[in-house]
Amino acid sequence: MTETVSGPARRGKAAVRKGLKMERIFTKPGVHPYDELDWERRDVVMTNWRDGSINFEQRGVEFPAFWSINAANIVTTKYFRGAVGTPQREWSLKQLVDRVVKVYTDTGREHGYFASDEDAEIFEHELKYALVHQVFSFNSPVWFNVGTKSPQQVSACFILSVDDQMESILDWYKEEGVIFKGGSGSGVNLSRIRSSKELLSSGGTASGPVSFMRGADASAGTIKSGGATRRAAKMVVLDVDHPDVAEFIQTKAREEDKVRALRDAGFDMDLGGRDIVSVQYQNANNSVRVSDEFMRAVETGGEFGLRARLTGEVIETVRAKDLFRLMAQAAWECADPGVQYDDTINDWHTSPESGRITASNPCSEYLHLDNSSCNLASINLLKFLRADNTFDVAPFVKLVELIITAMDISITFADFPTEKITETTRAFRQLGIGYANLGALLMASGHAYDSEGGRSVAAAITSLMTGTAYRRSAELAAAVGPYDGYARNAEAHKRVMRKHAAANDTIRTLDEVDKALHLEATREWAECLKLGEKNGYRNAQASLLAPTGTIGLMMDCDTTGIEPDLALKKYKKLVGGGSMEIVNHTVPRALGKLGYQPEQVEAIVEYIAEHGHVVDAPGLKREHYEVFDCAMGERSISPMGHVRMMAAVQPFLSGAISKTVNMSESATVEDIEKVYFEGWKMGLKALAIYRDNCKVGQPLSIAKNAKKEEPEAAPVVAAAPAGPVPPVRRRLPKKRPATVTRFSVAGAEGYMTASSYPDNGLGEVFLKLGKQGSTLAGVMDAFSMAISISLQYGVPLETWVEKFTNMRFEPAGMTDDPDIRMATSFMDYIFRRLALDHLPYESRAELGIFSAEERTLQAAGEDPASLHGEDVEGLAQSAEIELPAQPLPVVQSAPARVDATESHGRRTADAPMCMTCGTGMRPAGSCYVCEGCGSTSGCS
């Protein structure tokens, strides 16, 4: 372990402190960490999803050979600095890591962190090794800013404060704008602002916090984040005893009703649509800060008082259960608000003498003083799972020491957006070490995510991480001094350390893996308490669990943060473009750990590849099914399974956990009440839910609504027949118009002949794939005849398109069709092409199928329907909609996208499409991340 060198020598009254003595973890003396790797040159070319044009190109970039194409692409496009095409542009991972690590090492030397130059070199080499081997990563702002001419901002998110004064409210608007412009996010509690039921000193009635939220929301929607197309990341919190809490709870649910009404009226209300900006409160996550008093009143059926902001007197009394039901009902309708458990949060507060914790960052994992920032880094846990499925404890401990040292150094050199944030962060030095790949680690080691064994391993790892982090913080306090606010908060800080250590004693270990972890964690907490009593602590906070969106992809993690595996199959990016679906690498490793023989593993993996789940997989024991449960799919983890995992690790975190508890569309309001209530009982600090399809995702068109209403309005013209009417086949005439399309999917060629009725309408399809007489050719002939006969019997083409688009099998990848640049299979391409050639625009819009020209118009903010002369007025009249003064735009669905959860039977309907590359994003904690380019919808 690392030692602290100190001595009794004094200069005047001040003790002379000496820096840290560093030890090697992964590196060897005299060998640079880069020299032990095989490096290779690659070309990174990113195409525009709308028209196939190249929107990023950098050739000859250098990465270690084991880095995936996806990770290299994300680092090249996101983190390399310098104008593309100039000599100043970074082109090697070595340059990126050198740029960042140099600043950390030089600052550490300058400020006395190291005992000698040799220790500084060890620090530098170990940091470089860990970063290039994807063992851990700093959060994205470090890669964006450190070592550049830009401000050295290292923090992803900030907590602001707002007082009951107009000047403070306007400062809030300004500060948020500056933060959003820099690409970061913020959180704020508005509970100090007087309610709309209280009087102003002038005699008028106060506006209330909800009214001021409108201005902040509009500002966030205008500035967005870092000048990008995604929304800004922000959190708004209101205390449960605020008189305006009911209005706050219902704000987003009411707006969601507006979205549906406007969508049904023909406005473009899709995420990123041009009319969605008219809806308010969409740029923030909302949370209610509930107290133990309120939750006990919910439990007992009692009443609860809402209090005036200035005097604290009760001005209204409500039934606690009614207010709690209102929260659950709103969350059922639109996923907001989440809950934050105020007394639990402040019971674990290390610095209460300096102020209460009132708010969080946008994803709810960072909780500390107002006007402070979260400085994050995450460990790739799977790197510490040995081949024998034991956890490599000693290197993990030393890595935590290294990361905490580096993170504390970064606060010394970092820049912050406001003077208040600078002052608070420098005074309390809050850190947020966390991890990713927990879900993959548990599966690979044969543990079910929702099991006692899985929770025991997770708790032991988290306890070890935080115990080591605070022990290192105490060593840093001896070397360079405790944080400025420590003296005032010493007793409270030490009390929280004892709470963590006591919680560690309650971990119930079940096997040798978690026993080894728990044994070391117990040692670390004992040493932490001993050194903290002597030296104090360098950092007011040390750990939390962030969503690890982009950096998780950078580290080639299979799972993000604390999340389980999303599904058993994933998409692997290919060198020549496109991607292929493969079974997760953790599955065969888990099967091996469970004792299956290689031939059994192969059979089970093949079954998963075909079906996407393990149910009825050949030879797989039913008691092992739970090991392969995922967030989505045939066997998905229950909502309480997610809550139980959060509860297992929460006592070992300084902050909280970025995680959304996913619930099925059939979940009830009562189910949400149970999750929110059990979260309080289990000691969580914050909790958010998402019920599938509770938000408006793919919008319905006017035409679709009109079709649904037509049967109700149609007059009865004849009695119903006694029995079912047999379908009538409408054959094509001998002479019929036809088109022949030659196509290529991932280099494999085929031909399609599509014949139409003279009065329009597709009636026949012939497909030629493979050599004449081959099995493939025969199967496609039979398939063609089946399609053709069904069309002639009246089966709508839309039905076939809906069924076969997004079907995935090889060959898949790039096509030679400018309208359909990527296809997931021959079937996907064929039916997209048929839709473009034979379906009207409005039908294709519902299915999310657009031509290159239509996508170009969408990107420019124009209406693609104008290409087809759509009769907007006629459509509106058919749906009995009263037209406004200006013509209504025809609704556009989001373009078709590869959705990693569609093939597993469930998907999040409003998961955003990446506005950079057009790929469907996937959940990462409370945010979404694009696996194609690394863009996020939040602050991760």
UniProtKB/TrEMBL annotation:
Keywords: Cobalamin, Cobalt, Disulfide bond, DNA synthesis, Nucleotide-binding, Oxidoreductase. Pfam families: Ribonuc_red_2_N (PF08471), Ribonuc_red_lgC (PF02867), TSCPD (PF12637). Residues 734-836 form the TSCPD domain. Coiled coil: none annotated. The keyword Oxidoreductase applies. The keyword Zinc-finger does not apply. CDD domains: RNR_II_dimer. It catalyses: a 2'-deoxyribonucleoside 5'-diphosphate + [thioredoxin]-disulfide + H2O = a ribonucleoside 5'-diphosphate + [thioredoxin]-dithiol. Its cofactor is adenosylcob(III)alamin. Residues 44-134 form the Ribonucleotide reductase class II vitamin B12-dependent N-terminal domain. InterPro entries: RdRp_reductase_class-2, RNR_2_N, RNR_lg_C, RNR_NrdJ/NrdZ, TSCPD_dom. SUPFAM superfamilies: PFL-like glycyl radical enzymes. Its EC number is 1.17.4.1. Residues 155-690 form the Ribonucleotide reductase large subunit C-terminal domain. Belongs to the ribonucleoside diphosphate reductase class-2 family. Catalyzes the reduction of ribonucleotides to deoxyribonucleotides. May function to provide a pool of deoxyribonucleotide precursors for DNA repair during oxygen limitation and/or for immediate growth after restoration of oxygen. This is Vitamin B12-dependent ribonucleotide reductase. It comes from Actinocorallia aurantiaca.
